[in-house]
Automatic annotation (TrEMBL):
An annotated GO BP: lactose catabolic process
Protein name: Beta-galactosidase
One cellular component term from this protein's GO annotations in UniProt: beta-galactosidase complex
Annotated keywords: Glycosidase, Hydrolase
Molecular functions (GO terms): beta-galactosidase activity; carbohydrate binding
Length: 961
């Protein structure tokens, strides 16, 4: 094997479109013989010989990633290459996977056939019946070999020697697991003399009419028909069709076309769709659109890079159900199934070439392949393969040259190559901010302020001033933004508001759709997801591979649920008097006929009025205010919430009738309650004090019981178990402390009772407890004074904080910790729910009345961290016996069956075990979440800055009953 060759592939056929023909195909997927060698020198010789005896080899499924089948181990790095940067060479320690298959060929293949590999990671030599067919390059690109001469009816011997590392590994440094193998399908396609070699559909749309021409590369004459449009035409001729329905992600209309020759028929799905740019606005079929997108990698928790079709189908439905309309295939062309489904279900796709050389950045970009002419043929060929395979998909609106390769002329050559084949789509590459050879200005993780400036066209000049005017004429996308790692992402709404405000901003693609967890089991069989470093890697990037909106099993994380709200295509605003409703139709093409508007009113007792609103007609991109039926305002009362939900009026391909698309609310869960006067005296008994039903330890000043419910608290807490976003960008260590909280020792704060006095004033009797909280080694402190009063049944706690002067940076929270018996394992609350909510997340949490077990409040983030806060005005924590109810003027709470130190220490989900207590934290204030795990941190509006605290921050009251 020539592993240092820069050849773009040896012996392979010229790239062409993927289509299926009536001539037939035979899958060679299945069980193959397999043998792994640690290095090429150790690999057996002569395996290509037909008579080679592979009886002592094992077996492996094809397609597969071999480390997922017990051969070697997965390894994760983000930017850094796991081998020395010495291009085009790779280490001698280079796992070699030898694959052999003996098969019979179907008769229809014997007049001529092509052998197609849809993906081999990383490079392979291929032999059929003892003869070398050639060598593949480009893990996620197609390699086809002509096997007409060699294929026979029975006893064919196909041998594929796969090397994990080769020169092309330098081009495939995407942030994901290194997982070698024949991981996509292997197929024989019948291709006798005269068969169609290639097809290229050109189907444009303008103002209701279509223009169609289809190029057919075939020696036999062909005819083309589209019965639904009454079109009969010939290859290469352009037909004007006066009335067509355009293809859009909202209404993905596909027309079935048949291309016929005397030998075969090929069925095509055609979408009429035009992409254009006018005044730096991105238009599809003449209208401005917004990408509500995600970056999608291919990963499966058990299979690695192999993703079964049904999984792809269900994840795309899940995307549609969450108002996502666009996919960037980061950072390589996807399995073809994805594109078929994107055409059918309706997604705008950025199809990205299989290219990333990010690791050269760690070496000041020295010898970066994209800037080295020696690599140009390999790079250009990668782009050509991408465009050729996928050119007939209406869902693809943008070609992307690759990801994070720095800058270099080879990228411009790739752009030229793509344009030479297909000028109908836009060209994208993010890594060169001067954007001279692309059609979009694209950035990743640009801040809200910068995106605003770009929207206003007041951004800074390009580095090279000669290309500035070009870049200023381009639409803008964030090809990656809002990094969905762990708890978060915070601050999504702020970006969406900008996207909706400025025509130049065409939206963005969340990083990323999917966590790449690998399923593992503890010795006692408890399942969890592994991440970088769990597989013996010497070089790795920890849990940075766990940064998705869904788990590796495609379970939605709270970020996805919030994103659905942020991306909702219909804005619903309700007048405070419940008499009017304003509906904003944010679709570019669709009216709202596919939706119905349900309304319902609930209070603490449950739902008591509901109905369906009369249809409100709102054209695409328009807004209408309508009068609500009188019965709605008549249902208004104290503590009631009105919710209007836009639901699918009938079944679609991606969700059933009744599926919720968008919602809006009015009302409040606040109930007016009598103030608590201190009528109950303060009583002393032994070492306890009591005020009404509240009992206190006289030595600590802490509450120890409320009636017969044992409780220990409150203690001030300024700390939270760092989220991935709190940690910042280095994920090899669990707590990197980008927030400064560990440095300030917020996790080690202790209290000292400084005063315990009885008060008697205008509000009656009270017990005043002052505790000084401070961290080891520092003299800064916070004095917390709580005045407890009771009317005999209820208890009020008026809390006042007095911080000393020199606190720094931020606090995670102003919270009060309580510990209760673990039997208290149920919560019900009035506030926002059912999901979690932090100051800059929780867009999906709606007002209402909720209940949950303590267990179900937890979000099982792969690397455990702060999670699960709910926002409430009233909370009841109960178990088998009587519970306690805490009220206040809006607070967040978490309740957990484990302590915060246990959460801090846990590296994987099984590390968290209930310890018999319930840990309750009531937060008066919280610091935001942000997306600093990659990108901007917490926006200023969501900072909890101890130097900027207001009276409202420092004083609050809770009630206990
Ligand atoms: C980007 C990169 C992605 C991913 C992300 C962080 O820079 O393009 O591939 O690494 O950062 O998760």
């Amino acid at each position: 094997m020539d592993l240092s060759s820069l050849d773009p592939g040896v012996g392979t056929l010229p790239p062409r479109a993927r289509f299926s023909s009536s001539l037939g195909e035979q899958s060679l997927n299945g069980t193959w013989r397999f043998r792994l060698s640690a290095r090429l020198a150790d690999a057996p010789a002569g395996i290509e010989a037909e008579g080679y005896d592979d009886a002592d080899w094992g077996t492996i499924p094809v397609p597969s990633s071999w480390p997922m089948h017990g051969h070697g181990a997965p390894a994760y790095t983000n930017v850094q290459y796991p081998f020395p940067v010495d291009p085009p060479y790779v280490p001698d320690e280079n796992p070699i996977g030898d694959h052999r298959l003996v098969f019979d060929a179907e008769a229809f293949l014997l007049d001529g056939a092509v052998l197609r590999f849809d993906g081999i990671d990383n490079t392979a030599d291929v032999w059929l019946n003892g003869e070398l067919l050639g060598s593949t390059r480009g893990s996620r690109l197609v390699s086809e070999f002509d096997v007409s001469r060699l294929l026979r009816a029975t006893g064919n011997v196909l041998v594929v020697r796969v090397a994990q590392w080769s020169a092309s590994s330098y081009l495939e440094d995407q942030d994901m697991w290194w997982l070698p193998g024949i991981f996509r399908d292997v197929t024989l396609l019948a291709k006798p003399q005269g068969a169609i070699n290639d097809l290229f559909v050109h189907a444009d749309y303008a103002d209701g009419s279509g223009t169609l021409s289809i190029d057919v590369d075939s020696a036999s004459p062909a005819t083309i028909s589209i019965p639904e449009l009454g079109v009969e035409t010939a290859p290469g001729s352009s037909v004007e069709i006066p009335e067509v329905v355009g293809w859009t992600a909202e209404e993905p209309k596909l027309y079935r076309a048949t291309v016929r020759t005397e030998l075969e028929t090929v069925e095509l799905a055609i979408g009429f769709r035009t992409v254009s740019v006018v005044d730096s606005t991105l238009l599809i079929n003449g209208r401005p659109i917004l990408f509500k997108g995600v970056n999608r990698h291919e990963h499966h928790p058990d299979l690695g890079r192999v993703v079964p079709r049904e999984v792809v189908e269900s994840e795309l439905r899940l995307m549609k159900q969450h108002n996502i309309n666009a996919i960037r295939t980061s950072h390589y062309p996807p399995h073809p199934v994805l594109l078929e489904l994107a055409d059918e279900l309706g997604f705008y796709v950025i199809d990205e070439c299989d290219l990333e050389t990010h690791g050269f950045g760690m070496n000041k970009w020295r010898r970066n392949p994209v800037a080295d002419p020696a690599w140009r043929p390999a790079l250009v060929e990668r782009m050509i393969k991408t465009v050729q395979r996928d050119k007939n998909h209406p869902s693809i609106v943008i070609w992307s040259l690759g990801n994070e390769c720095g800058t270099g002329d080879n990228l411009a050559a790739m752009a030229d190559a793509a344009r030479a084949i297909d000028g109908s789509r836009l060209i994208h590459y993010e890594g060169d901010w001067d954007s001279s050879y692309v059609d979009l200005y694209s950035r990743m993780y640009a801040s809200v302020d910068e995106v605003k400036a770009i929207g206003e066209k007041t951004e800074e000049q390009t580095k090279d001033p000669t290309v500035d005017a070009h870049r200023r004429s381009l639409p803008f996308i964030q090809c990656e933004y809002i990094h969905a790692m762990g708890n978060g992402p915070g601050g999504m709404t702020e970006y969406q508001e900008l996207f909706e405000r400025y025509p130049r901003l065409a939206g963005g693609f969340v990083w990323e759709w999917l966590e790449h967890g690998i399923r593992q089991h503890t010795d006692d069989g408890v399942e969890y997801y592994g991440y970088g470093g769990d597989f013996g890697e010497t070089v790795h990037d920890g849990n940075f591979v766990i940064d998705g909106l869904v788990s590796a099993d495609r379970e939605p994380r709270p970020g996805l649920v919030d994103l659905k709200k942020v991306y909702e295509p219909v804005g619903i605003g309700i007048g405070t008097d419940w008499k009017t409703i304003t509906i904003a139709n944010k679709y570019a093409f669709s009216d709202l006929d596919h939706l119905r508007l349900d309304w319902a009113v609930e209070d603490a007792e449950g739902r008591y009025a509901a109905g369906v609103l009369p249809a409100i007609e709102v054209a695409a991109a328009d807004q209408v205010t309508a009068v609500l039926p009188d019965e709605i305002a008549a249902a208004r009362r104290d503590g009631a919430v009105l919710t209007v939900v836009a639901r699918l009026a009938k079944d679609t391909d991606w969700a059933g009738e009744g599926h919720e698309v968008a919602w809006g609310q009015a009302g409040a869960v606040t109930m007016i309650s009598e103030p608590i006067d201190g009528t109950a005296p303060v009583l002393t008994q032994d070492r306890t004090l009591s005020v009404g039903p509240a009992r206190f330890d006289a030595t600590t000043g802490r509450l120890i019981a409320l009636d017969d419910v044992a409780i220990d608290g409150p203690r001030l807490t300024l700390w939270r178990s760092p989220t991935d976003n709190d940690n910042g960008m280095d994920h090899r260590v669990k707590r990197r402390d980008s927030s400064g909280w560990t440095g300030q020792r917020l996790d080690k704060v202790v209290g000292r009772l400084v005063g315990l006095t009885e008060v008697d004033d205008d509000h009656g009797h009270g017990l005043q407890v002052t505790t000084r909280y401070a961290a080891p080694s520092y003299d800064r402190h916070v004095d917390v004074t709580i005045t407890w009063r009771s009317d005999g049944s209820r208890v009020a706690a008026a809390v006042r904080l007095e911080p000393s002067g020199d606190w720094k940076q931020s606090w995670a929270r102003i919270g009060l910790d309580f510990v209760l018996d673990g039997a208290a394992d149920r919560v019900s609350w009035a506030g926002h729910g059912p999901g979690q909510k932090y100051p800059d997340t929780g867009q999906a949490a709606r007002l209402g009345y909720f209940e949950s077990s303590v267990t179900d409040l937890q979000v099982p983030y792969v690397r455990p961290q702060e999670n699960g806060a709910r926002w409430a005005e009233r909370l009841t924590l109960s178990g088998s016996g009587r519970g306690i109810t805490i009220g206040g003027d809006g607070f967040a709470f978490t309740a957990r069956p484990w302590s915060t130190p246990a959460l801090d220490a846990a590296e994987h989900t099984p590390d968290l075990q209930p310890d018999g207590s319930t840990y309750l934290t009531i937060d008066h204030r919280q610091h935001g979440i942000g997306t600093a795990s990659c990108g901007p941190g917490v926006l200023p509006a969501y900072h909890l800055d101890p130097t900027q605290l207001t009276e409202a921050d420092l004083n609050f009251e809770l009630t206990f009953s």
